[in-house]
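Q: Can I see a sequence and its folded structure?
A: Here is a first one.
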Amino acid sequence: MKSAIQAIIGGLLRIKDIMKTIAAVLTEINNPLQIEELIILPLKKGQVLVEVAYSGICHSQLNEIHGLKGEDKFLPHTLGHEGSGIVVEIGPEVTKVKPGDHAVLTWIKGSGQDAPATHYLRTDGSIVNSGAISTFLTHAVISENRLVPITKDMPLKEAALLGCAIPTGAGIVLNSARVQPGSSVAVFGCGGIGISAIIASSAIAKAKFIIAVDVVDQKLNYAIKLGATHIINASKEDSVKAIVDLMERRGVDVTIECAGKKETMENAFMCVKDNGGLCVIAGNLPKGQKIKIDPFDLIKGKRIVGTWGGETDPDRDIPLYVNSFLSGIINLRSLVTLSHPLTNINEAIQKTESGQVGRCLIEMSNTHR
């Protein structure tokens, strides 16, 4: 089998214009990503080759790097599930995009063919696995249903945020919780998704109370600039008591948990009001961890639900977010607090883990090719 693969590689390498990509590859759990040059194989049905412009770093990737999702059977593999780029080539039967189109790359399935996971080749014949979408690459093979074409008026830098952060955070506000004007919202965790929820609660849903909860003052100050009306540093005060007191003992209409911590999930549920208060869990716990709630709170009418990407329909919602940005309704520029070239991705990952940044982007144009 290996000799057959090597023969294929040998043939590919003799082709003058063979396509290659530079990728950040996870080769071992809890190890830095490795920057590698990989061979791109001919596109299959439903696949699209995209020149990636920007990719976001999401906590889902951090969980994968640290093995918090359980056994990883696909090592070595590429990472990244939100980004933006320009279509270079389309595979058989692709109709949603064409070469030259600008597109958002998103992990949330939309219309189009659901192409199988792809893989790339090293020159030694070994395989690097990839899913239907990976964005930590300069050129990436993406499934047609993980792409949404956008107007070229939309800057690709801000467009990268529409692959996960905004659809999930804003989607929770608009689709999952259906936050109403004049209502109260508490957001636990002010990373990319939490800040996106704050932006949507303020600029689109017009909530009256928007309470940001975090343990980093820098992120809380950032939340105030983007629409929060109140901030609580949970490392300095009891967040449940502070919220309940602020709401005159009634609790809030909606809480959104984005920190991915057991305690914050439990606290977020405790803070919602009786008779219809809703807690939406967006964060991910390490595999096997569980939360505890008092079932009597359910009897009192409190509700708790999970969310799958903010119940986003990418083909419907992403163009709406594009229009909201271009018309000045939502501020996405301030959501990006840091960018790095792909070659410095491990530094970017460390800064994201430290909690000192909003959304960190990987800028592919700054990567040596």
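Q: Show me another, different protein.
A: A second, unrelated one:
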Amino acid sequence: MKNAQAQPRLTHHVESALGQALRGMTGAVFTIAPREKAPDPSEAEEPFLWQQSFDTVEGPAFWISTGKGAWESLGRLTMVAAGVDDPSPEDCRSTWQEIVSQTIAAVAAGITTDMEREVAAGQGEELKEEPPDLAWMTFSIIGADNKAFVFKVAWSQGLANLYASRAAEIHSPAARENTVSKTFDLLLEVALPVSVSFGRTFLQIREVLKLNTGSIVELDRFVTDPVEVIVNDCVIGHGEVVVVDGNYGVRINQLASREDRLRTGMAGTIKTGERP
């Protein structure tokens, strides 16, 4: 099920995505790397096995399996970092599920960049047993104390075929004839302001004048609603607020197409550069 174009890219995305998720949740740095040796039976006991689909691939497309020794230890480390001193195994398992969710979202973002079109994570579910005939790839998770944990991933032929199709598109005669101009290359260096909107409201002038320290302004959005990602005064996507290394960030859940984002950015740039 592996593919010459897909394996190096998907391997890179798994390493980067899980490393970022663990660092964001624990504040610690981990090294994620493939290893040749398959997990020992003790490393694969009571696994957390997750199956994920992507909207551009038919059927389940990605699997990740982690033994109890890894998900319980890393889940506990995350909970302790959040101030929970004695988390239960159930707490550790649910925490690991959140880490896996963040990892898959980042993998989808990496595939989106590779494909130059949006590939979003679809439905996911926990499995009790491994599907047959999967070609697993094993990875190590190594912390600062050199303690190592093991997990493994697999992907479908359909996901691998995305990379084969993309490689064919890039090397097609039509693609070579439609190469990007040098002028367009210059536009890619233009910096655009990016902001996030948590909500809006309107106040009368008399209400604004009454504002002082401690006043609360109610916005037009619930706390569970997605925030808007704005580029050059145009909404290009929606996401949820996360915390990364003590800083606020936004995990993008929905994004306009690459063409729409490009068109929006260029239009804003031209408008900004116009002279009266």
